[in-house]
């Protein structure tokens, strides 16, 4: 370990999700020494969000010896531009929905340390490659299933960024074309995210409940407040309509992965996020639809794996890895 790392033994990793922002202070061995979190929404401006983040960070920074022990900060965020350090037109962030927000520089100005950022799913992919089930792999795709649908694509051991930093938005491939496609937060219709995110599962539940009178425990809930977790619990308890909702969701994800295979021929698809807690309810229809639709040349080659990193650890650790790469 060099002198600089001895003097500043920690970096901050931020997993900035559509619902929660989770911080971790991480050492050079990848151990998360302290954590905190705030809600991502509820702020009128990016300045208000950054102020709240820094206020939440202060106690855990002091816990590890103060800002002088922090080398840098890495951020994983939706619609983050790795090259520019900006969040650009993020559908699920009210304070960055219609603009470019120079978030990395804003944190640098507040904290006085170098800050870099990448797409949240890219951060999860880095975390899986360094600490998780993708260790030793050079070609894989991480798909994050949360408020939205994100993806981190690794080809030949390197994250795919494209010329502008925005390559790999697989959540916004069009799955249903035409006016019948669901509206997506990105402004288009029929995106994968509109169907296969946690919010998409809730929308599917409402649609199915309104189109049939079949019995379901979901009818005991306020349809406007149904969550993907409640659908998963109902399905796990044997509710046939809830199981059909997950079959529909998994089938669409599997069909999408069959198309993605033609792009990068991954060794594995790795699923990360709250929705994968549904286990085989979601994974079985994904595998079956993939096998039914993938080109013969790719059939039987890709693994379908679930992240083994707890909670937001993959994204936090991945974001922190970006911080270690920064120069003072």
Q: If you had to describe this structure to a student in words, what would you say it looks like?
A:
With 328 residues, this protein is an alpha/beta fold. It has helices at 3-7, 46-63, 103-111, 120-131, 193-196, 198-211, 228-236, 240-264, 280-293, 313-325, and strands at 10-16, 20-27, 32-39, 70-77, 80-81, 86-88, 100-101, 115-119, 140-145, 149-155, 158-159, 268-272, 303-306. Helix 2 crosses helix 3 (103-111). The longest helix has 25 residues, at 240-264. It starts with a helix and ends with a helix. Mean pLDDT is 92; it is low at 1-5.
What's the arrangement of strands in the largest beta sheet? 3-2-1-4-8
Radius of gyration: 20 Å
Strand content: 15-25%
Spans of 5+ residues with little confidence (pLDDT < 50)?
1-5
Number of helices: 10
Order of helices and strands: HEEEHEEEEHEHEEEHHHHEHEH
N-C termini distance: 16 Å
How many strand segments? 13
Shape, please? globular
Structural category? alpha/beta
Q: Roughly what is the average pLDDT, rounded to an integer?
A: 92
Helix content: 25-40%
User: Main sheet, how many strands, which sense, barrel?
Assistant: 5 strands, mixed
């Amino acid at each position: 370990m060099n002198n600089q790392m001895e003097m500043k033994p920690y970096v901050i990793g931020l997993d900035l999700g559509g619902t929660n922002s989770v911080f971790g202070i991480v050492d050079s061995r990848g151990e998360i020494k302290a954590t905190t979190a705030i809600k991502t929404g509820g702020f009128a401006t990016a300045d208000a969000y950054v102020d709240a983040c820094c206020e939440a960070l202060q106690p855990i920074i002091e816990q590890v010896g103060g800002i002088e022990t922090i080398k840098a900060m890495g951020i994983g965020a939706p619609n983050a531009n790795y090259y520019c350090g900006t969040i650009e037109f993020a559908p699920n962030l009210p304070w960055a929905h219609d603009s470019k927000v120079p978030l990395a520089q804003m944190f640098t100005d507040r904290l006085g340390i170098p800050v870099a950022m990448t797409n949240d799913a890219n951060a999860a992919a880095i975390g899986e490659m360094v600490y998780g089930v993708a260790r030793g792999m050079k070609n894989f795709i991480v798909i994050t299933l949360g408020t939205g649908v994100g993806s981190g694509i690794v080809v030949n051991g390197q994250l795919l960024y494209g010329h502008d930093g925005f390559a790999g938005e697989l959540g916004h491939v069009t799955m249903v074309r035409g006016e019948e496609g669901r509206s997506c937060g990105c402004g288009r219709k029929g995106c994968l995210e509109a169907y296969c995110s946690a919010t998409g599962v809730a929308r599917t539940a409402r649609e199915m409940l309104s189109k049939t009178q079949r019995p379901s425990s979901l009818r005991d809930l306020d349809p406007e407040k149904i969550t993907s977790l409640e659908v998963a619990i109902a399905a796990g308890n044997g509710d046939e309509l809830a199981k059909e909702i997950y079959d529909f969701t998994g089938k669409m994800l599997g069909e999408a992965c069959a198309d993605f295979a033609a792009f990068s021929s991954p060794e594995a698809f790795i699923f990360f996020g709250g929705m994968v807690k549904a286990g085989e309810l979601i994974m079985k229809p994904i595998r079956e639809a993939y096998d039914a639709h993938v080109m013969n040349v790719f059939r039987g080659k890709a693994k379908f794996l679930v992240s083994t990193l707890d909670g937001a650890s993959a994204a936090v650790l991945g974001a922190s890895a970006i911080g270690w790469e920064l120069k003072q």
